Amino acid sequence: MSRTPPGRSRMRSNTPPPVDPDTVETPVAGWLRGIRFSGFSLMMMGILVMAVVVLAPSLRTYAEQRQEINRLSASVDDQRTEVDDLEIERDRWDDRTFVTTQARERLSYVLPGDISFLVINDLPVAAGQADAPPVSAEIQDTDIDWLDSMFASVMTAGLAPEAAAPTSDAAVPGTTVPEVTP
């Protein structure tokens, strides 16, 4: 049988040993202490850093070039749309009817045998303006109530006696209307 030193019992106590507050370990601190760096892991981290340093400018250049390609593709699409519109316009000008219509509207051309009337306002500008009353800045009232006037017009039109409409055959002289027997 083994002997235990005096003052110690065979059973261990469930109380934890006293902890120094300066050396309190948090879960993060315990995790960081558990990381061990070997030569291989240091070499891999160095290679990773060098890869980032070497590849970062290339990736930036790649992204810039993709943006430029997208911008140029959009420009090409816009130009294709414009070319299609111009081809449609060119095809319309190949049509003789369209050219004739444009010549009549834009240049006032007429075909042989057609009669063209051109109305020109030959009144002097000052003569038309001399008869007009001067413009006033004051608000003017009218003597006629427009609502009563409109109501009277509608009532007159609605209550007017209906006139007998002439038949189309009776209106033409020299024609007779056949008699219809029931």
Number of strands: 0
Return Rg in Å: 52 Å
User: Structural class, from secondary structure content?
Assistant: mainly alpha
Beta-strand portion reads under 5%
Which sequence of SSEs, written as H and E, runs from N to C?
HHHHHH
Q: Give the overall silhouette.
A: elongated
* Arithmetic mean pLDDT: 78
Could you name the ranges where pLDDT drops below 50 across 5 or more consecutive residues?
none
Task: State the helical fraction.
Answer: 40-55%
The profile of the biggest β sheet is: none
Number of continuous helical runs: 6
Q: How far from one another are the termini?
A: 149 Å
Protein architecture, described:
55% of the residues lie in helices and 0% in strands. It contains six helices and no strands. The protein is an all-alpha fold and 182 residues long.
Name some characteristics of this structure.
mainly alpha; 182 residues
How do the strands and helices of this protein lay out in sequence?
Elements: H1 27-34, H2 39-94, H3 96-107, H4 125-130, H5 146-159, H6 168-171
Short description, anyone?
The chain is built from six helices and no strands.
